[in-house]
Amino acid sequence: MSNKEVKAALKSAREAIRNKEYKEALKHCKAVLKQEKNNYNAWVFIGLAAAELEQPDQAKGAYKKAIELEPNQLLAWQGLANLYEKPNQTDVRGDLAEVYQKLLQLYESGDKQKWYDVCNKLVEIYHQEKKYSEVAETWQKLIQVKEEEGAEKAELHQLWKKMIQLLKDSTQSQDNKIEQSLLTAFEHAVNSADPVLGEDHQKLYKDFIQCLSKFPHEVARLEKACRDMMALYPTVSYPLEVLCLHFVQSGTLSEEALDCFSKLLEMDASSGPGIIGLGIKCLQEKKYKEAVKSLTEGLEKTSQCPAAWRYLAEAQMKIHKHKDAVLSCNKALQALGTPEGPNRRWQNPILQLKAEALVKIPDADAAEEAIQSLEQIEDASSDPVVLALRGRAYLSKGLMDQASKISQELLSSHPDLAESHALEGFIHYSQKNYEQAERSFLNAVERKAETAEYHQYLGLTYWFMSDETKRDKGKALTQFLKAAKLDNYLGSVFCYLGNYYRDIAGDKSRARGCYKKAFELDGTDEESGTAAVDLSMELGDTDTALSILKEVTEKASTGTAKWAWLHRGLYYLRTDQPAQAVADLQAAVRADPKDANCWESLGEAYLSRGSYSTALKSFKKASELNPGLVYSIYKAAEVEQTLGKYENAIATYQQILKTEDYVPALKGLGECYLMLAKSALGNFFDKK
């Protein structure tokens, strides 16, 4: 076949393809290849015809042969791209991407529109494969080409926005190059918007700031973006809220941060981050109750802020709400998310604070939970303060050997650490080795004099120490006063000060004040509440006593606050208000159905009200619970006598007199016999 015949055959093949006579085209191409086996066009036509005849393998082989012959010719690459793009071609993304890369090279100096089309297709493949680095690189190349061509600002803006969409799911990749590409796209997009001010631009800026907040090392960029948005949109609170949360999470509260909190609250008084900031300011100023209130309110609106939960726990610890502090620490740990996240540095302080709170709760389960929390702290074994906490947790759980071992290790390795001596003191105190405890707590106070707890336990040591200190509680008083001065939220110290003024100094008025303060600080402290009420009654200040009891009973849920219900019920009984007495004493019985004294008092109240049958039941219940309660047995007999059940009353009186000479029972027995005699005379039984 001559050269002229080869050209004619190729022309026939082209005509056959145009007429969709693909088998005919293959015949012409094969004839050409017999003569010229390296004919580029023949291989391309075979690829095209085979593809149309659903023979993909033959088509692919033909195109690859043509590419091998002429690697920089377009036709074969275009044909191969068309083949791979067919719906029936699977698992060819990687091959197609390589084809597109070659086509980009070939189109670069020629048809720009085709270059853009192929570039879009290539980026789409990379995006599907989650190859974000290649997405960023290719798309930036496209934008660069557009810029060189002098594209309009609006078109470039849309391209940067498309790049943001392509890379928005890449924030978890932890690839700095991809991250920088995404942030660069955001910066270009927000700066190229026209008009600048508008809802779309505002949303774009919000997305940019939200993206920046995911990268803890982009602090400067985040602050700048927030300030820039604040300048453009002075009435929008979002950038100020993000900036405030950033300051909270950073843990450093500068004047600038406090200024941001104030501005945000001026703009929106109900803003969660603003109220959280106010709470942290109160915490710094040692206004702990206000801090708890503000932080709690702020976290109801902005709950996913681990640092704020940690500040709340810290404030709750300052006012000795240890159980609340544990719950706040748990919320903080939930908000942290994965330990590898941007808030990871908060994990250890939160776990340590949680353990501190749990150690203060006198419960073996709490101690076990404290140990578990401490085990999660990184490098805990190298931190002596954490080790001392572990020792206290062991002590709370009753594991004396483990606690003593840690104490000895700390005293050996860190003799100048207050916590080392304090742990030793707690161990001696729990074993009632008061002289050794005194020595340890004095050492702890010497090293950390501002810790109220050390003074408190030194005072307790003196309180229980020996006969001499029992007679003279002056040393204990000094330490309790120091503890109260250092920490005026420490309710237990005020309780012991009350004990001192009541039992030692005989100053009922001052004692009452201390007990009242202790109870205000800890509403669960029944000892202080009872003492404050009793002393108020003794001092003739009934109003104060009743106001304390009213406050407790109003807050009490069913089955709680027995002491308050009992005290007020007895007061009503003494002041001849039987209806109120019955209601309060019923509540006391519900709180503790096995308290014989409550049942006895309830019986008295029913009796005062004239409810004899229910009074009888109450007295009988009291004597069942405590058979030694003679008064209840006597009152039951007395009620039976009043109801005319003389035989029953006589039997009950005789039961009392078998065990002791109880004069009221003798009197009652005589009266019953007399009443029976009168009854007999009335019925004319005397003649029998």
UniProtKB/TrEMBL annotation:
Which Gene3D superfamilies did the record assign? Tetratricopeptide repeat domain (1.25.40.10)
Q: Name one GO cellular component term.
A: Ski complex
Top-level taxon: Eukaryota
Name the Pfam families for this protein.
Answer: TPR_16, TPR_19, TPR_6
GO BP annotations, alphabetical order: RNA catabolic process
* Entry keywords, A to Z: Coiled coil, Repeat, TPR repeat
Coiled coil segments of this chain: 3-39
Q: Where, in residue numbers, are the TPR repeats?
A: 40-73, 562-595, 596-629
Q: Which PANTHER family match?
A: SUPERKILLER 3 PROTEIN-RELATED, SUPERKILLER COMPLEX PROTEIN 3
Return the protein name. Answer: TTC37 protein
